[in-house]
Amino acid sequence: MSLLRLAVILLLLFAFSLGEHRSFTVDYKNDCFRKDGETFRYISGSIHYSRIPRVYWKDRLLKMYMAGLNAIQTYIPWNYHEESPGRYSFSGDRDVEYFLQLAQDIGFVVILRPGPYVCGEWDMGGLPAWLLTKKDIVLRSSDPDYIAAVDKWMGKLLPMMKPYLYQNGGPIITVQVENEYGSYFACDYNYMRHLSKLFRSYLGDEVVLFTTDGAGLNYLKCGSIQDLYATVDFGPGGNVTAAFEAQRHAEPHGPLVNSEFYTGWLDHWGSHHSVVSSARVAKSLNEMLAMGANVNLYMFIGGTNFGYWNGANSPYAPQPTSYDYDAPLSEAGDLTEKYYTIREVIRMYNKIPAGPIPPTTPKYSYGTVVMTQLQTVSDALEKLSFSGPVKSMYPQTFIELNQAFGYMLYRTVLPVDCSTPTPLSSPLNGIHDRAYVSVDGVSVGILERNKALTVNVTGKAGSQVDILVENMGRINYGKGINDFKGLVSNLTLGADTLLDWIMYSLSIDEAVSQGLLGETKPTDPPPLAALSLPAFYKGSFIIPDGIPDLPQDTYIKLPQWRKGQVWINGFNLGRYWPSRGPQVTLFVPANILSTAQPNNVTVLELEEAPCSSGTCNVEFTSTPILNATVQAHHEGDAYVKLRELGAAQEKSICDIH
Q1: What is the strand order of the sheet 496-497 is part of?
Q2: What is the C-alpha to C-alpha distance for residues 176 and 229, in angstroms, rounded to an integer?
Q3: Does position 657 have pLDDT exceeding 90, yes or no?
Q4: Helix/strand/coil for 420
């Protein structure tokens, strides 16, 4: 613990000991919250510190404060802080204590949502993938192995949060227990009672603990229990009175609370970028505030799923890198028309702080960067697989090989001659989630979960078969959160099961950041194929140090590239997939750029780089493209149609079955 943080905690405890007793309570008689004995109503906005670089936390929070909000709401994703059992990370972009202190310094109170499950369109809903080492574990239930892990995690987290409770001098006024549990199949009241006792044991009896569920009796039936204040969530355009009547069924008295009022909607690859009109949001917001309700706007700023942190919905539909959400502040923190519209509604109920609103951060077009090819994934195996090959008769999953995210290479041989095209299949839909298949160094096709279960291959007996499997993000809602990755069932060649696999767990992020990838050795060009082998590409650009205010934020665009991953100076920006859309550009925050040395760009293109016809480039532009023409797929379209039919007014995507 830093000396500064220790001093802050000691000051909070000293003030508390002097008799300055702060309180935050539910007043059931007068249907309101009370803060230090006075009636209090919060108008809050959701912001996820895990989706915003630390250097921008203050900028985003100040913009929220200047919109008239008096509270913020945030998740704590368990898997973001404990990526492997017992190894905790709370520094840098993961410094949640600094985030809470910053929010308080700016003038906010905080609504904390520590899970253990958070949903949030985040990988596995915030649960760590290593929980799946017990294959039959029942997540979000009284399963003893799950409970043991939760108890240990909360035993680490909640004591850290206690000094930041409002009654202890901190900003946290309420703490959510679990999240939208009424939408989960288990309906395990003993589990919820256990969590309630666990939170109380660490946080005390004074703190207001609450639950959030959809605005329907079927959600509240399993989501609300005694001693946890029940709140609801719903979006714009519906019957506000009817939605709050559902809360009144669980809580006949106490404050009205919409814990997630949807300002926009989430996206999926292959569907159009979701847009919800400012007028529609403003109308419903005004109705709720006129009723005296407490409202949290989800999201006020969405941010970015950097790296591999995006989640997915079922039937399998992964979310893109951008979590813009059509929120009042854009992915990059830009002020939008929706921001000002919402601010005017809030002005009718709260005093807007005096002073200027922090401006939209400037964006810079750094131009075109020439890319050259490095090694293919197969050629770079020795540099990418730090742990070396693992042999097994049948393919093993990511978790069995102690890998959580990214990519894994599976290798075997054709057991027989395939002189005519022979189906290589995943009969049990075991590709989780997308696989790039090659035979003797020639790409032959792509297998994809729920979509493409067979490719035809040719070759002689003994031909090498490489299958690079991509984890596209774990399901974050419903039964499917037990989402194993890799080849999760056997593959067949014709009617026969393929055996004798060699598997390589790939540490691509480490290899990129350490600069281990070399250039391709000149060889004879491979036969023409519809797809190219998954391969790395590099380029660099210089930002002059004599220009004031540089570096600035930017966006990277990959014209004619198909699908892959991008790193800048070793920082994993996330996935690109412009061939499917809707997202085309990736947000590049200025803090990862340098004026002191060249900026290195590394691309892993999985399908087809535009280099066969000559030089290939990436572009840095000042304008985002999040709603380009998309290659429609029925899973994603189903969610968009639900939203357009008003699903947002009923529940978030986390509650759509």
Answers
A1: 454-459, 418-425, 492-493, 496-497
A2: 9
A3: no
A4: strand
- Tell me the β-bridge partners of 501: 392
Which residue in 480, 188, 198 sits closest to 318, CA to CA?
480
Q: Using alpha carbons, select from 233, 238, 167, 169 the residue that is nearest to residue 204.
A: 167
> How many Å apart are CA 64 and CA 5, to the nearest integer?
24
d(CA 357, CA 362): 15
245: annotated active-site residue: no
Cα 556 vs. chain centroid, distance in angstroms?
Answer: 20
| Cβ neighbours of residue 403 closer than 8 Å, sequence gap 6 or more | 505, 506
Residue 509: other Cβ atoms inside 10 A: 17
DSSP string, 533-564: PPEEEEEEE---TTSTT-S-BEEEE-TT--SE
pLDDT digits (tens, 9 = 90+) for 541-581: 999 888 888 999 999 999 999 999 999 999 999 999 999 99
Q: Which pair of tokens denotes residue 518?
A: 């070399």
SS3 content of the chain, % helix, strand, coil (to 5): 30, 25, 45
Q: What six digits make up the tokens of 601?
A: 């760009």
Distance CA 139, CA 147 (A): 9
Q: What are phi and psi of 217, to 5 degrees?
A: -60, -30
Of the listed 180, 470, 608, 650, which one is catalytic? 180
| Beta-ladder partners of 468 | 409, 436
Tell me which residue of 537, 539, 510 sits closest to 600, measured CA to CA.
539
- Which tokens sit at 506? 């790939």
Distance CA 560, CA 121 (A): 28
Q: Which of these, 338, 474, 465, 453, lies nearest to 397 by C-alpha position? A: 474
Give me the catalytic one of 178, 251, 260, 608: 260
pTM for the complete prediction? 0.93
Under 8 Å CB-to-CB from 285, ≥6 apart: which residues?
236, 261, 295, 297, 342, 345, 346
DSSP 122-182: BGGGG--GGGGGSTT--TTTT-HHHHHHHHHHHHHHHHHHGGGBGGGTSSEEEEE-SSSGG
* Burial class of 508 by CB neighbour count within 10 A (0 to 12, 13 to 18, 19+): buried
List pLDDT tens digits, range 19-71: 479 999 999 999 999 999 999 999 999 999 999 999 999 999 999 999 999 99
Q: How far apart are CA 312 and CA 299, in angstroms?
A: 18
344 in catalytic set: no
